[in-house]
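hey so u asked for the seq, here:
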Amino acid sequence: MSNSRVSRISAAEIEPYRARGGQLRMVLHPGSVGSRSGYMGTVVLQPGEYVVEHFHPYSEEFLFVVNGDLVLEAEGEDWALGAGDGIYVPIGKRHRLRNVGTTESLAVYHTGPLAPDPSLAHVDTEVLGETQTESTDAAAGTARILFMVTVAEEKREGFLAAYEKVRFNVAATPGHIRDQICQSPDNPDKWLIVSEWDSMAEFFAWEQSTEHKELVRPMQACYSDPEFRSFNVVAETKATRS
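ran it, structure tokens below
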């Protein structure tokens, strides 16, 4: 159910996400205001900074430049942007945003409709600062969190609705990589939530926060028999396909 209240969020109070370049802040989204059609945020870039190339498999992107001189690279074509310019990026189009000016730039973006899962909202096609040579153990040192619970059939709808809000919120949390929710094929009352983080410290910083405790309270009313496991990734093997 969408939020029926008018909600105001200050971008200045949001910790910026920097792993994709610049300072990205997801301001209005399902986890913060209960939106259903999309999410809105800001991107601040210093001279020479850029947001890594990516695309949105399910969403269109609308970008409006507040100040600064930017170039949007989209599918091999460069679009020069200045204050007051807006640009539309269709679903599935690879794009990268660069600050080509001499001053800080600020742009506002809106993306919609929502992807069916936050982990599918965008797909990065490069990694910030990455060279052409990739490490075979790039995942080493990341953290995997397993959380197993029992959810009775009559509480399943409430559990999934509560998790929906949690997963959209955590998707904007620094250090979070991905989240999955799984149901046992043998026992539909058994559920597993798997999350991946840049480090164990970043997971526990979120898990112990007041915000997290408030978010998960509706979920806690729906499950029993919780089991928690945490692991540090040592190595990862990726599939090779011809």
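The chain has two domains: 11-124, 143-232. Confidence is low (pLDDT under 50) at residues 131-136.
lmk if thats what u needed
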